[in-house]
Predict the 3D structure of the following.
Amino acid sequence: MNSSLKDGLLKGKVAFVAGASSGINLGIAQRLAEQGAKVAIISRSAEKIAAAAKTITDKGYPCVGIAADVRDYAAVDAALAEAVKQFGKIDIVLSGAAGNFVAPALGMSANGFKTVVDIDLIGTFNVLRACFQYLNRPGASLISITAGQGERPSMFQAHVCAAKAGINMLTKCLAMEWGPAGVRVNAISPGPIADTEGMARLAPNPGDEQRIKSRVPLRDYGEKLDIAEAVVYLSTESARYVTGVIMQVDGGSGLGDAGANAIPEGF
Ligand code: HXC
Ligand code: NAP
């Protein structure tokens, strides 16, 4: 897919992306770099985050990979300090680290539930709370990655639903508290995105993909670039008056099941 947005939109900016060793968040980091931002990325695994950073530096873009677990506030703070040491400031923060497994609530131990809430919700609080002191403000843009499960209940996803609903509310609270400092706080809610760990876990069986696509209003999975382009928009001056928003980039899937064909023949 070719991007329709202009290039160089984030020249001179510095971005910090949490949970970026793979998938959607790595796609976001890559796109921010292509748009001119210097990018610091973190994840738990030193090996994986170094390999991810290399995919960006190999293309000639400045990027540093730092190992840090978002559940560890001190580690997140140290990673932010390292990013500032390398690149001088932080303009854009993306909080997207997450964990998921499919299990009924009764098949979930207290630690299983807590693990996902710790990574997704507490991790997002840690990233957003810790970054504030390092932000180039006014003008900074903070973006979290949520999911449709934050608004709609889903069986076997009690941990993710609770955590993502928390991220949605946290987004709105921080947007109110930090707006006066010129810090915008938004979230993006992706729909089903092709070639991701998330969909591999949620839709592992043959036929799952076609069944899901047949219920999405736009009748397709999204691509990582669809999410990355929304992040680019929210990080530019074009979005200067946008804060506290949960932006759906989901092909309409958040609207509900659009499995029926509502367009009569001949139209
Ligand atoms: C029941 C499970 C389980 C499963 C783990 N647990 N998998 N319980 N069913 N399938 C339980 C364990 O038994 C343990 O509880 C607790 O969870 C913690 O497990 P650990 O392996 O020790 O945790 P950790 O190493 O921190 O790993 C976290 C993880 C793992 C979430 C469990 O899967 C992971 O690292 N995930 C990261 C990658 C990922 O999930 N990507 C997808 C993101 S997509 P006990 O009681 O035994 O100690 C996403 C979906 C959004 O977020 C929506 C998409 C549409
Ligand atoms: P993914 O590739 O598994 O990405 C998750 C990332 O989080 C990995 O880079 C992982 O790296 C990192 N991570 C996990 N635990 C961490 C921790 N404690 N500290 C720091 N980093 C951690 O999954 P994805 O499918 O692309 O999902 C990315 C985001 O999009 C998630 O927020 C997910 O909820 C959201 N989302 C996905 C979909 C979808 O269709 N896939 C739909 C809606 C929302 P390490 O293992 O190296 O730590």
Q: What stands out?
A: The longest helix spans residues 110-131. Residues 14-248 form a domain with the Rossmann fold fold (CATH 3.40.50.720).
